[in-house]
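Limitations

Structures in this collection are predictions, not experimental determinations, and the ligand pose is part of the prediction. Treat each record accordingly. The example that follows, with pyridoxal-5'-phosphate as the small molecule, is included so readers can see exactly what is and is not provided: the inputs are given verbatim, and the output is the predicted complex.
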Amino acid sequence: MNNQELFLKSKTKVPGGVHSPVRAFKGMSMAPRFVKQANGAYFTDIEDKQFIDFCMSFGPLILGHQNEEVKGQLHQALDRGWTYGTCEPYSLDLAEFLIEKINFIDQVRFVNSGTEAVMTALRLARGVTGRSKIIKFNGCYHGHVDSMLIKAGSGLAGTAESSSKGVPNSIADDTLILELADLKIVREVFEREGEHIAALIIEPLPANNGLLIQEQSYLEGLKQLCEEFGALLIFDEVISGFRMGFGGMAEKTGINPDIVTYGKVIGGGLPVGALGARKEIMDHLAPIGGVYQAGTLSANPLAMVAGLATLKQLTSDVYQQLEEQTQKVINLLNQFAQTHANGQFADIKFYRQGSLFWSASSTTINRACDIPATISDNFNPLFSELLNRGIYLAPSAYEVGFCSMAHDDSVIADLKKRLGL
Ligand code: PLP
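Predicted complex:
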């Protein structure tokens, strides 16, 4: 069967043919690619067409597909069994490794996804503060937690209504949604409702709705406001953790959040999420404290081993190399966008932060509300053109691209060739 046939079949068995909506190629006039296998910086689809992969499973594969060390550790782990439902040393190894390197966390708890990590972090913040409301920003994605699936309401600044059917507005009532990059409005909301605000959650590098780079002074201002009003600062580093340097944006900005959430890279491509904080905060979690959280497969030994084998390879040299390679990638993509078909894509510019990149008309977009409504009209034809050339970007104008250590100079040379440059 080809991709089209498999997609038609999949749609009869799975809602929309996919297990996560962005995989559906919505708005594209073609079926998603069904991956047969992947290695290094490439995957091959069911029709035996090979692609350079710039999606990399939406971020976890910072070392590329089938990294030899991770694979070797996984093979050994398989021989020890793959879930125990009781204590084991492998999660302790990963916890120790993290805590040693990330100075603002004393303890960590492993869960199965970024969504779970955020869900637990929010509950923990509410349990610690005894307050109910959470500030969240438009354009930041925090997984499919009910209270995070919201959009701006029509009331006072910050008011929200649910953005997904199935999320009652009574849940949205406890979330205050604000535009990014505006400290004044955050202060206003804290002054109005500060005594009810348990936490402010932000992707310190918002990378789920474009790449909306925030100023250092803004992030510092958020930290100060949280301190002033007794709310906890949650950095959701599910994408940026171990990607923007080992310690993510917290390390890069020198701002210590009260709670941090991780996902993606921390599991090396297996399902893991984590939250970390100082001991006095983590002590509120069950079984010590009254904030409940549990998981049959939490700290799954295969995932722990894959995570540790990945993180151990992330030296500062690796980050430097990742940045250099990503710069080469976007230079080529920009050259292509500027010159192809008499400037058909000339409005598109690629830019990067670390090893993440995004295509937009301007590098200065830092609020979701400033993303042009035409962005998909520009991006979708470029996506198709690149796909035909065997270059795979995440299938949406709002998603970022990811480079990995497998995107070496031979891949860059191949990219150049595929782009006809
Ligand atoms: N938080 C952020 C910043 C994310 O980027 C994501 C996923 O893209 C999540 C939370 C949810 O993670 P998961 O998809 O593992 O549930």
